[in-house]
Amino acid sequence: MTPFIAPHRALDPAFLDALEELANDSTGNWWRDVLQHPDLVLAVRRNSINAYHRGASIFRIGWKPGQVIPFTHAKYLVRPTQTYVALERGEFRFDARDVLQKTYLGMETLNEMCRAASRYAGAEKAGLHPMLAGNADVIDAEIALTRLSLPDDDGEEETGASDRRQDRIDAAIAILEKGVPTIRFYEAKHFTNPALRASGDNFPDVVRQITDYEKALEAYRAELSAGYIETARALLRFNDMRIRAFGESASRSIAPTIRQIAETGPAPVIDALPHLIIYGFDKAQRDDPAWGKHLAKLQAAIPGRVRAIGNPTRTTVFNR
Asked: CA torsion angle for 199, 200, 201, 207 (degrees, to 10)?
C-alpha cells in the first residue's frame, strides 16, 4: 500500500465552497475585491490563504468549520493623515475613526490597505513584487521552510534575523523540465543586500541561506509535491470564481504547467536546488569591478543558478 503523504498545502472542500459562495454574492464583499485586485498575489497554506502585496500579507484568510475569517495587521488599517494630535496629561487625544480604518467599504478600503502596506515594504520585497504579480507560472510565494522541522505556513513576514528558526524563500514557479512538471524555487536579493558580498575568500551569507534551503527542500520533497497538486487546483478554482463572478475578462493567465499539475498530473518534481535572483541595480553598478568579484564568487558557489536582472517588471520572467 502506498503510504499517505500529508500535503504541505491544502484547503478543505468546504472552505473552497464557502469562498465560492462569497465570490457569487453580487452585493459585494472583501473576497470579491481580493479576487479582482490586479496587484495581489494569492498563496495557499494549510487551510488558509495569504493575499500578498509587496511581501505584506494584506489578508490572512482562515477557515473554521462554516466560517471564512479574514485577518489583517492593524498597521495596514492606519490612514495617512496630516492631523495634529494633542498630548494632554500624558495621553494623546485623537479620534480613532480619523486614524484607523474602522469599516470595510469595498475596493477603496482594500486599495488604502495596500498603500499602507507599501510604506512598510523594503526595497527587496517591493522590487520583486512585479514579477510575482505578472508571471503566470508563479505557484507560490513567501514559502516558509522551518529549519530541521516541517514547513511552517503562518504567512507572516520574515523578521530578517540571522538566527531565525525559519527562512522564507521568495517564489516557486511551475515549469516543464525535460517534459516533466517541476517546481523550482527562487530566492531574490536586492543589489544592496550585504548578504551578497563577503571579504577575502569568505562566501557571502546568501550561500549559506541557499544551502539551508536545499536541505529543507530535499527533506520534504514528498510533502511539497503533494501540496503543490492541491495548490494548483486551488489556483484554478480561484480563477473559475473570477470568471463566474465577473466574466471572462477577469480571468488571470495561468501557466499550462500549473493546469497540468491540477488536472492530469503527474505529481510535480521538486527541484531542491534553489536559484538566486539579484536585482535593483543600474548599468554602472552592474559594471563595477568590485561587484564583479562578488558576483563571480556567487556564480562559483551556486553554479548555473545565479541571475542578475537589473530592475524587474511584470513581464520579467523567472525562468529563462
From this structure: 10
**How confident is residue 1, by pLDDT bands cut at 50, 70 and 90?**
very low
Structure confidence at residue 288 (pLDDT) = 96
Q: Which residues are CB-contacts of 38 (< 8 A; sequence separation ≥ 6)?
A: 133
pLDDT of residue 147: 65
- % the chain with pLDDT above 70: 90
State the pLDDT confidence band at 3, using cuts at 50, 70 and 90: low
Residue ranges covered by each domain of the chain: 13-310
Question: Residue with C-alpha cell 498575489?
Answer: 41
- Give the H or E element holding residue 45: none
The values of phi and psi at residue 59, to 5°, are -135, 135
3-class SS of residue 90 = coil
Note the helical H segments in 38-95: none
Q: What is the spatial distance between Cα 282 and Cα 259, in angstroms, rounded to a whole number?
A: 37
Task: Please report the DSSP string for 104-123 in residue order.
Answer: --THHHHHHHHHHHHTT--H
Quote the pTM value: 0.89
295 vs 24: CA distance, rounded Å: 50
Say if CB 91 and CB 46 are below 8 A apart.
Answer: no
Given this model, what pLDDT does residue 276 score?
97
- pLDDT digit string (tens) for 13-51? 999 999 999 999 999 999 999 999 999 999 999 999 999
| Separation between Cα atoms, residue 195 and residue 177, nearest integer Å | 30
Query: How buried is 162 (Cβ within 10 angstroms: 0-12 exposed, 13-18 middle, 19+ buried)?
Result: exposed
The DSSP bridge pattern shows strands 86-88 and 91-93 to be antiparallel
DSSP β-bridge partners for residue 190: 279
DSSP H or E stretch at residue 195:
none
C-alpha closest to that of 74 among 62, 50, 58: 58
Whole-number pLDDT of residue 96: 66
